[in-house]
Amino acid sequence: MVCRSAPMGAILYMLQDHDDKPAHECGVFGIVATDADVARLTFFGLYALQHRGQESAGIAVANGRTIRSHKAMGLVSQVFNEENLRPLAGHLAIGHTRYSTTGSSRLENAQPFVVESVLGPLAVGHNGNLTNAATLRQELLTRGVGLTGSSDSEVITQMLAGGEGRTWEEKFKVFMVRAQGAYCLTVLTRDALFAVRDPLGLHPICLGRLGERGWVVASESCALGTIGASFEREIEPGEILMITTEGPRTIAHMPAHKPAECLFEYIYFARPDSLLHGKALHAVRVAQGRELAREAPAEADVVIPVPDSATPAAIGYAQASGLPYSEGLIKNRYIGRTFIQPDDQLRQVGIALKFNALTDNLAGKRVVMIDDSIVRGNTSGPIVRLLREAGASEVHVRVSSPPIRHPCFLGVDMATYPELIAHRLTIPQICEHLGADSLAYLSLEGLIKASRHGDDTFCRGCFTGKYPVDIELVNKEIFELR
Amino acid sequence: MVCRSAPMGAILYMLQDHDDKPAHECGVFGIVATDADVARLTFFGLYALQHRGQESAGIAVANGRTIRSHKAMGLVSQVFNEENLRPLAGHLAIGHTRYSTTGSSRLENAQPFVVESVLGPLAVGHNGNLTNAATLRQELLTRGVGLTGSSDSEVITQMLAGGEGRTWEEKFKVFMVRAQGAYCLTVLTRDALFAVRDPLGLHPICLGRLGERGWVVASESCALGTIGASFEREIEPGEILMITTEGPRTIAHMPAHKPAECLFEYIYFARPDSLLHGKALHAVRVAQGRELAREAPAEADVVIPVPDSATPAAIGYAQASGLPYSEGLIKNRYIGRTFIQPDDQLRQVGIALKFNALTDNLAGKRVVMIDDSIVRGNTSGPIVRLLREAGASEVHVRVSSPPIRHPCFLGVDMATYPELIAHRLTIPQICEHLGADSLAYLSLEGLIKASRHGDDTFCRGCFTGKYPVDIELVNKEIFELR
Amino acid sequence: MVCRSAPMGAILYMLQDHDDKPAHECGVFGIVATDADVARLTFFGLYALQHRGQESAGIAVANGRTIRSHKAMGLVSQVFNEENLRPLAGHLAIGHTRYSTTGSSRLENAQPFVVESVLGPLAVGHNGNLTNAATLRQELLTRGVGLTGSSDSEVITQMLAGGEGRTWEEKFKVFMVRAQGAYCLTVLTRDALFAVRDPLGLHPICLGRLGERGWVVASESCALGTIGASFEREIEPGEILMITTEGPRTIAHMPAHKPAECLFEYIYFARPDSLLHGKALHAVRVAQGRELAREAPAEADVVIPVPDSATPAAIGYAQASGLPYSEGLIKNRYIGRTFIQPDDQLRQVGIALKFNALTDNLAGKRVVMIDDSIVRGNTSGPIVRLLREAGASEVHVRVSSPPIRHPCFLGVDMATYPELIAHRLTIPQICEHLGADSLAYLSLEGLIKASRHGDDTFCRGCFTGKYPVDIELVNKEIFELR
Amino acid sequence: MVCRSAPMGAILYMLQDHDDKPAHECGVFGIVATDADVARLTFFGLYALQHRGQESAGIAVANGRTIRSHKAMGLVSQVFNEENLRPLAGHLAIGHTRYSTTGSSRLENAQPFVVESVLGPLAVGHNGNLTNAATLRQELLTRGVGLTGSSDSEVITQMLAGGEGRTWEEKFKVFMVRAQGAYCLTVLTRDALFAVRDPLGLHPICLGRLGERGWVVASESCALGTIGASFEREIEPGEILMITTEGPRTIAHMPAHKPAECLFEYIYFARPDSLLHGKALHAVRVAQGRELAREAPAEADVVIPVPDSATPAAIGYAQASGLPYSEGLIKNRYIGRTFIQPDDQLRQVGIALKFNALTDNLAGKRVVMIDDSIVRGNTSGPIVRLLREAGASEVHVRVSSPPIRHPCFLGVDMATYPELIAHRLTIPQICEHLGADSLAYLSLEGLIKASRHGDDTFCRGCFTGKYPVDIELVNKEIFELR
């Protein structure tokens, strides 16, 4: 299949770090330790989870009586300093890093949410998306709760603060009966840390051990290593885990559906050094690349990744295909948000702030370009053209995940139907749009096989349109007051 | 009575603008106008009310469908710029300037509070203090509402958002049945502005007219003049006034106690160019000074005020006594918050950042020094000493209000019992403490007579300890989470 | 003379603190003290001199070997905190507050200027304006010095750093031979403080004593009192005073022209509690008001000032005329820079952010309105109209200085010829322009008599156009690079 | 050679992006174009040069008459926005990004330096280090120039502004006769851009073409590609190139020593996609890795880089050795400056914020770890331990450059003699210090051969201690005033 020399629009501007990738929702962290500076450890834990959200960060600390917190817009390293960390004294803490689309970027939505409730103070950090948030929100309004922001994390917080149940344990169970969709929670009361994972287990959260008597929970295991904690186990889908100074105790396993883990944690989200089901995601992605080489070989001279996220898959593709691995694109390490717009002339000359091509590695060569996913398809075309201008004689695009044909309604910012290129176009049409010599995606079966052998418990909604839960089709901005 | 040469402690540092004065709680503003930029007019209205609160400022605007808002810590002129004012488009608006003691200074407490409720969006600005806030707060928690901050303004907002009543009108009436204490509210729904004054009428709020079809409410009439509106009338104690594009309509007059206006609005709070009961407060304060001259004359050569607030009273005292009026103290016009602490040496030399004395007007003279009130008594002594060092042969202190012997529990930050000098000491002891040659206060009768002839409907709690309502003795910081 | 009912333009917006007043250039401060925190004392000294410049502030400290400094845009209280003050350790210091027109507002022009020179480090603070700056600047460029900013203070610094002379003493003498115009300097070397005043003595600078062994110099004596120093004497016109830990020593008295002090220091600039020639300026201004009453009496019922600067003159006018003194205008104490522009509607209604009128004191009365000076004449008219709208039956404007018919070229920002209302119009025309019933200015003779008896050594350039030096007619912005 | 199990100190904290690497000095850029927004193009050019300096950034623009500029501390994307870019209109521009050690981090040292000179305005951007700066600086002081900062770039600016010569051309020639050491300059006058490279050609600077009539100069060719310019040629060592709207013209080739290019541009500094002598540095570094494999093979199972800079060398080592290439360390992509210090407990557990190990790729394997250079040796040891803790059975460290035994005095921040581990220890001792199983460096001959065939014109001072120029042994901080 050859589909070359498509007419191309102007090369687009690649200023964002996550161009044309699905976007994380959040990272959560929690810790109980009587002999440590829990706020400081939470800071370093969030530092390791920064890739899961760069919009805002916050820490709440409990000391047996009250909860104190600090949160602000920005990276973890920008939000915290010694001065605002110092007052956060206690022996239990949770932390949160938040990603959000620009539209709803407001301090009111930063987490943890901290409220006073009838059972005392409460702090909540949430990763995920409730699919029945609109219903739950309306119930809260009807019950007479005024809601300040638009995030469903506030809905969760008010459900816990005011929901049925005489104890926190009861309240969590009631909450899990009512909530649908994706939620990993770390919740702080004045003397306990709760870690909760939805019955589908959509997003990861794990338990670690810190020294003799400390316990840690985190979205990803990479945060454990960073603070010197050891990996213990994953929180189970449907599990409510309560941790006090006495240690962890499972309060309940809510009747689970068949689990449905988000495949994009395996493809792109989680850091390559994090473990899922005991295996580092780097190795998983190398296996995806190997499988891709078997499914979709190419006659070529060299294999290159679109850095950085596709590097493991490219290494795997090279290994399985026997083609040499190399680098063909250099990424500007100092990409930052800029508000300076290119002018017309710059648009014409085709500015490429994010990547430059390595002519020496490409000139006269038939190139296999490995990417891990294509969402809107607006950056792959310019990259193909960049490779051609650097002298590549052929460009064969290989993608280590299947075509994304459906949006995600469970907490991943994946674009809408009209934006998804694989919803609008066939694979040959996409190939032509990209100006590639050939294009192939990894099959869903291949992806699942490479991701975890003999175990098919994944959510595959964005590939198949069949979601593990009913979806209230609500726009995430729908509740915005402003 | 002569009580001189009291041993004095080191002269204290006078860095705050409101040293030893009772402190305002807040200023509220509201506007309905179909043919004006209501956010911009609210900005200029708040500018005129800035003296009622310098900690935070905010504006909320309704356009018939939604409410948008912006608020931040700082002066009105610091909080707003063209960029954040521009999105606030609509035809109804409220604004708020907030004062608070440092302890609870947090953005979470800035107003207006904006929430989504079952009847739609709601924005609330509040001046005052509920005396049964703790009870109401507990009821909200029991009802299952998580509360984020510590201010009773959030309590009011959640009571309105979720309280009984099928309409806003009903909800306001229910609220007024339940709430006790001081509250002037401006409340915005998506298509109406409500102005509410507690049945005691503790703090002022008035109605003005802007052009043909615009209506304005404000804590003080000075804000009307600033935006070109004309004074219409005061909102009545117990009145719920609803203003829409159809104009104002009184929803209810709640059964009132005997009104109990705060006397300190007449003594110090309200701007001298504001009107209360049709009379400018400048004239009221001149009359207080005249009455003080009659009650407590002094053998002296010159009358000087402690600037700026005692200037009208000093003018009145001079007029009635026949003594010449002059200035004896110059106030640094650029007083600002500084975090630089004087060192020991500076303490010894007696730094006086706020005032310098005018030797030429004082040397060899018997001086009557007029102040409008003494709370803690920590700045009057150093000022007396400053006058003596400038050569004053005698210093006779005259205060145009009675001794403050009790705290306020109705929204004025007046200090606690142990801090109040007139609670601890007799007048001769205070005189000795100040190092004055004589000291006299205006009598309560004199104050009332000068403030409004033949009409005794004032709250006099801080002078007599008899409050117009039952007081839950709660510290305002009591609900603070952090 | 009656000149009423002039057609008036739209009422202008009075947002600046110094509307229609000549503008200060700078305040300088210096200290030598072995047993004190000299940077901290300089901070408090600058605090007292804040009225002389609000654009930027800076402090430089010498410790016998090196000079350290900090400066930034903003008020003294905004520029300094404990963190940036702490490193400024030493026993000699200078400080500076700067005013400048907006055009050349840049950090590069903030003072003190600190440079390394062949004789070691050098820090310079300057108040004034050189009249031959362009010539001197060209000489420096020709000598091969690259100049970074546009201020003549940099010219002074480079002249001292690189001018002829083997010692600092020689360099200062050479400088004074070459420089023309107005300059009060405080200069720091690694082990000495120099205070220099131009031979004309245009602007004030005085010497004070701090404890046993400390010495202070400051633009105005009010800064001495603030830090507990006692007034010693003024620096003489033409004097070079050197202060080390050994105490002060006069290096030279440069051959002086007849002194020519700036009359506007007596009229408006200096704080009323500062002393000039042993007399507080408050008393001087009361005398000016008395003289004005004698020269230009009015049939009226009440005397009011335009606050705050005209208050002493109004007190004097009231005293001499026998008319009662009162307040008729209330100034918003929280005037701050705002970038919010009034819209057209606000322009029509006649917003008056700065002043509100006191109807009770004005209605039905014939008012004498005292101002200390009129420059452009753009705010007096609106104030007259404000008084009329408040019910004043007549408004008689009296100004306690003569008509300003010429710009200042010696460091005062006084407006240009076409801007000066008294350059364009006769007094009756101005009266008509203001809409006043009568208008009178204090005569130059009266001003001088009131300001200092029997001693006529003033610069009167802005009144007569006869300057004490030759003027290079250069625009102050002329050297701006950007 | 085996040198294992050395006792190790606590693992250090790896928070900086450039840990244990020599540090760039600066990046320079210049452009002449009559039909383009030169400031905007300079912004994007600096964006591509950001890796050469992250402390401050600045742009100066000339329009035939004047020069305007803006500069501030921070990244290019932080320093500039549309508001401060807009006023920078013209047709010539230069830009600068600056690196500096913390000690001398001050806005005064940010570039470009802009001064007014006798020939008109002048803006200077400089990359490098003068070896006779102290002498030149003293000459300037003696000539009577006051110097404000401590950088030798100010020395260059003042030498050009005030040096001998009636024209700019003459001044540049005089400058090059006097200056010794490393300097790549982009200099703006009101109507010309000068690009100057020192006779040794220590650091790179090249010329590019933009459209029909535009010309660009930049430290590295990667900046040309980013704005759509094509590479033309390198500026020659000793060349003075003048570019006006008429195009480029070589003013002079100053008599050159034998050229002496900095080898660290080939090893680490320049971006891998930049060209030097027509070859991309990525290919050069792959060749270095290949040579290293030939010189120092290892019995091992896998080759991994220390990311990101050693990746090309690791690819080359894998290719030449036949060992599989993989990733063993994951770098946190969100490393940012944090002021939060780890506490004692965190120190003990061995926090590793910068890198996590990929256990799957390492466990039970003999690992070749490729780094491009070792300076102080404080991060390599912890990385070796990290690999071992992840299960590596052997760790063989291979470095693609020779041992650094001497500091650089020509503009590279390379550490001092006592800090350089290869100055203090033998290779076996270093191996033991790192806890590696074996350690080998690339030979100098191998490095040179791989970097450029048959052409030995490199500075090798840091490897051999033989510098191409005389060194005034001055500490870069020596002139600091504060």
Description of the molecule:
Four copies of one chain form a homotetramer. Chain A has 482 residues and is an alpha+beta fold. Helix content of chain A is 28%, strand content 25%. In chain A, helix 4 (133-143) crosses helix 5, helix 5 packs across helix 6 (168-178) and helix 9 (281-295) runs antiparallel to helix 16. The first copy, chain A, is elongated and about 70 Å long. At the A-D interface, helix 1, helix 2, helix 7, strand 16 and helix 9 of A face helix 1, helix 2, helix 7, strand 16 and helix 9 of D.
CATH superfamily of the largest domain in chain A: Aminohydrolase, N-terminal nucleophile (Ntn) domain
Low-pLDDT residue spans of chain A:
1-18, 473-482
| Helical amount of chain A | 25-40%
Q: What is the residue-mean pLDDT of chain A, rounded to a whole number?
A: 87
Quick one: biggest sheet of chain A? 7 strands, antiparallel
Binding site for [4Fe-4S] cluster (chains A, B, C, D): 262, 408, 459, 462
Enzyme class (chains A, B, C, D): transferase
Pathway (chains A, B, C, D): Purine metabolism; IMP biosynthesis via de novo pathway; N(1)-(5-phospho-D-ribosyl)glycinamide from 5-phospho-alpha-D-ribose 1-diphosphate: step 1/2
Pfam family, one (chains A, B, C, D): GATase_6
